[in-house]
Structures are given as structure tokens and as C-alpha cells.
Target: histidine kinase
Amino acid sequence: MTPDLATLLLMRLLLEVLIAFAFWALMRRYPAMGGPGWWSLGSVVSIAGSLALMARAGGMSPQMGAMAALLMFVANAFAWVGLRSYLRWDLPLKFVGVSSAGLLVALLAASFRPQPAALLQMLYVGSGLMLSLLSLRDLVRVGLRRAPPEFRALTALSAFEALVLVSMLVWMAGHLSPLDEVAATFLMLFLMTKLVRVMIYGALVSLRMRQEAQRARQTIAERDAESRALVDNLGAGVLVLRPDRSVARINAATRRFLNWPEGGQPPATGVWPLLGPDGQRLPRHEMPFERVLATGQPVSDVVVGIHIAGEIRWALCNAYPENDVLGGLRHVVFTFVDITALRQMQQQQRALEQQLAQSQKMEALGTLAGGVAHDFNNILAAILGNADLARQDLPTGHPARQSLHEISSAARRGRELVRQILAFSRQQPLARTPVCPDAIVTETCSLLRTAIGSNVQLVKEVAPNGPAILADATRLGQVLLNLGTNAVHALQGQPGRIGFRIDTVGPDDPALPPALLEPCRRSGLGAVRIAVSDNGCGMDDATRARIFEPFFTTKRVGQGTGLGLPMVLGIVEAHGGAITVESRAGEGSTFTLYFPATADKPPAPESVPEVVFADGGTMAPIPGGEPSPPAPFSVEPPAMSDDPSAAPAHILYLDDDDTLVFLVRRLLERRGYKVTAVCDQQEAIDAVRAQPQGFQLLMTDYNMPGMSGVDVAREVLAINPELPVAVASGYISDELQAEAAAAGVTEVVFKTDAVEAFCEVVARLVSPKN
Model:
């Protein structure tokens, strides 16, 4: 038996009030969840619609029925909007507004026609059928197979409602019954479906809460896993200790640092011997864990070391306490960074700083030696030149000629010492050309073979088809001969072996010295390695550390000056090469030279220039091989000119050393030249200004106070651009040659050879150009 319409409307009204409050509470509790707010709003609108139906049932106008039908449609539309909001889809508010406006117009139009009840019922049922179909479409889009049971139940309910509404619409089209007869059955049926729908909506809310709780737990688990993975993959170590000193947690970096196997149980920290920055064992109260345990305060930037697998590993540690909710200590968390490599680099840096200090000392000594050698070279040049001039003035057989010869011999030995000093300070010019190192080694072995005993084995090992190097053959031969002489001395007259080995080193070979890495990689050719070895007395570490210091020697007084190996180092580095030394006391020595290889081919083979080595330094004369005395210097008269009436060439010579000015004037005048020799730069410039075409050559020193020789050349060439100008210097560098070329200087002469070759240079520069 169906209750009357008024009872059903009252029941519907009370139910909507309860539903509205229930969904409003859910909306307040879960504001981020879409659905409950719209469903609560729909229930409020449905309450208004129920009141309008009650007024219409009480006998009010048909327009009140139209308003009730519109409110019921809007309430159902809000329920559909709430479903889409729950699914987090776009809200069809515009569609609902347009549909509501159209339905309102249709309802009002139907309310003014005859028998409005039937039309109002059909419009209401039709609008409700449209909303049911839209809800059913959205539910089907969710995917019923993968959808939870709540969605499947809601889909079935929506399908049932649509089927009922279609049946009602068909029935009403053929039977126009009074409103009261149909409304009671209609309300009774949809009141039950509404109860079911509300229960399903509540289940959907519970489902969403369970899903969000599951997602939250999954997120927490993922974050925990990520944090664990992050900690495990950190390059820094993380170690968590309990108050009883047992290990609660460690990461992979800690296991690697402490050399613990994966999965193994680490020992308690009480047995770990920690070292302080000074390498001494830390007292217990200074250990980071004990400090945190005793004070409850964090510690930071503590450097500790630990013995692991026979080595000391160093770490920069930080530690802090982790307390529970009651303030009690739960854990002590250690974080540390492995600074073992940094400590090693610091040790290497200290070693490099010592090397840098040594290099700076050597550079300062080289600069000082170069300056002294420059002035000393001028003195020796004056001694040699004047001694030879004096010898020419004496008749043959005069007793003083032998004394002058001894003076020249002593000066020449002094000049060799000057050459060694200049080689050490790298202030000698190098005529670097492509040379084949095995030819120089062969020549060196030939020279050594004549001076060593038969009990010494001389071995040469040369890799075939080796590349050439850019080198000054004379200087390189001097280096090899000095090293070979040292090897002979190391044998101390005993039988032994001296070896020369030549091979190549690739650009990526780890044996390549660091100084040659970049140039060799840039050229892609690698380096040529020349090793000179012996099995003689060798050197201890203290001696090996000082062998390249100038004036350091282990020989007796009078047998060495200590410049041999410094000269070797200077020449090798001037070639862009490097040298390494391996030696042990009683086991011999090996000097290894590295030179960058070149793709250029050496010229046709010819004899290597004679090598001059020092009669002193670390290389004393080879036993059994006294060098022959140098030939006396002589100045030959010039060849007579084809034209006896030709005027002699006029030479202007400038030097701030008056002894050289006196010597050069006498040398050139004996050669038949007219010479104007001055010591002042301005005087030389004024002489050219007075006679712009009166001189055939200007020879000037470079290093003079006030104006350099290049400055004088600029002033003179501004007066007479055709005048040949030569600059002499004992410090020839690329910068000097570039500066001289830019100033228009004809030639830069190395002053060490300026006196002996002076007349030849003058003759070449003043001769007419063909």
C-alpha cells in the first residue's frame, strides 16, 4: 500500500535535511575531496523542491508545480556535477545553467496550457531521464571492469533509474492520469533509489579516503626508500650509532671507507683506533662520539684518521645527537667526507712547494750566474784578444810567447766555465734543427770509447726508425758526453757497464713527464727518450736531491766545480725537455732525458759538430784521456782588395766596456779597417748624424746603461736607414731577436763568440751585397 502524497513529501523533506547535513560534514572534514559539497548543495535545493511540491499538493497554482519540477531538476543536476567533481573531471556548470533556463521556459509555458499536470510531469521525467543518461555515460567512461564495486553499483542504479524513467515516459504518453495518482508512486520509487544512491555516495567517500590513505602510505614508503637510496648513494659517509656504541645504520660510502663487506655486521665503535690530524692516537674523551655523548652538543669539522687494510684513511667528520620525544638520546649521527686524497694532495703540494722554492732559488742563482758570466766574459775576451795581439807583436822564439800562450789557455778554460754558467742559466742561444738522436749518441759513444778502459762495457740500444727531435746538436752532444763522463767516474776505475738507450714514448704513456704531456698530446707524436745508465757507485737520497744545485760536487777540490749537471739540466730544459734520475747507493744510476718528437726530417747525415765539455764541474777529465791543448788564437791579415786604391771600410764600434773598445779598435785596425770606437751611446749617434754616409757598419753592445743597443740602432737607422747594424749580447732571447728585427737590426751576435769571430762578422756585414 502506497502512502499518501503528503506523507511521502514529508519523508522526502526529512531525508533531504539529513543528507544535506551529512554531506556538509563530509565537505568540512575533507575539503579537497570533490563531490560532498555538490551533493550537500543538491540536497538543499531538493528540500526547496519538496516544499514547492507540498505547496502544489495543497492546491496552489500550476506555476508552483513548474517551480518544483525545476528545483528537482537542479537538485539532480548538482548530484551529477558532484559525481564529475568526485572524478576530478571538468564541471558542466554552463550546460546545467543553459538546461535549467530552457526547462524553466518550457515548464512555465506548460503551466499556462489546459491540463498542465500531464505536460509538467512529462517535462520533469524527460529532464530527469537526460541527467540519468549523462551520469550513466560518465560512469561507463570510468571503466566498469577495472572500477571498484561502488562504481559498478552506482552504474547499475543509474541504469535502473533510466529504465524506470523511460517506462514512465512511455506510460504517461498513453495515460494522462491526475497528478496525485501518479506522484505518490513516482515519489515512493525515487525515494528508495535516492536512499540507495546516498549510501553509494557515502561508500564512494569511504573509497576515496581509503585510496588516499593507501597513496599516502605508498608515498611515505617511496619517500623512505628514496631517502634510503639517497643516503646509500651519497658520496659522503653516514653512520648512525646507538648510545651503547653499536651501529644502527650505515650507508654504502661508509662501508667502502671502512672496508666492510655488504651485509656484514660492523664492530662496535669502542674498538676503533682513531688518529688525530697529527697522526697520533686520539684520547677517548676527544673522540667525536664521546664528545657528543658527554655534552649532548654537535661537533663539526673534526679531522680523524683510521688504520684500514694497512693504510691510514682520513675523514672530515660532523656529529650531532638525535633525541626522542622525551629529550632522551636515541642516536648519534655521523656524517663524514673521505679526505684521504686531499691529504695526499696536500702532501704533494708541500713537496711541490719545496720544489718551487728550489726552482726559484735555482732561477735566482741562474740570473745571478748569468749576470756574472756576462761581465766575466767581457774580461776574458779582453784577456784573450790582448794576449794574442801581444803574441803577434813578439818575434818567434821570444820567451814571453810561452807565457802569453799559458795566459790564453787559462782564459779559455775560464771561458768554458762561463759557457757552463750560461748553459745552466739557459742564456745561450740554441740553433735547434731536426736532428737524429741516434747519430749524436753514436758520436758520443765513439768519443767515450777512446777514453775508457777495456774493462768497461759500452752498450748502445737504439729503437729502429725513431723520430727526430728539434735540438742543437752541439749542446745535446755536450749533455750526453757529460752524462757519459759522470758514468765513467761512477765506476771508480772498476769493471762495469755504461749503457745508452734510445726509444720513444707515446703521448698517452704514463711514463711521460708531466711537463711534456700537453705539447706531446698536442703534436700527437710523443717523445724521444734517451737513457744513460751505469752500474757504478750510485747515489743516496741526500746526494740525489742536490745533484742539480750549482757548485755542488762530491769530488775532491780541484776535480770538479759542480756545474756539469746544472748545465745538463739547463740545456735539456732549454730544449723543452725533461730529465729524471733513478739511483741507489751501490746499485748505479740512470739519467733519462725526454725530448718532444718532431715530424720534420733531419738533413742529410753529416758529422756531428765537435763537442766541447768542461774540464771541471762534476765531470773531471776522463782517466787516461787528457784533452789536447787548444790551438792559439791568431788574427790573420785581411785579403788584399782587388782595387789597391779602394778606401778602407769605416766601422763604428760602441761598448760601455773601455777594455773591449780598446781591443776591438786594435783588432780591426790590424785588419785594415778604419775604426771609430766609443763608450757613450749619444756620442755614437752624433757621429752618425755628423757623417750619415761615413760608416759602413755599426757594431754595438746590447746591455748598456741608459740606452740599449736596440735603442741606439733605432736612432741611427732613423738617420741612415741603409747602414748595417749588428747588436752583440750574451743574453739572446726570442724577445730580443724580435725587438731587434722590428728595429731594423741586420744581425744579433752572441757575445761569447764575438771577439774570436768578430773579424769574420765584420767582413761579412761590410762586404758589398751581390
In short: Residues 246 and 268 are 5 Å apart (CA to CA).
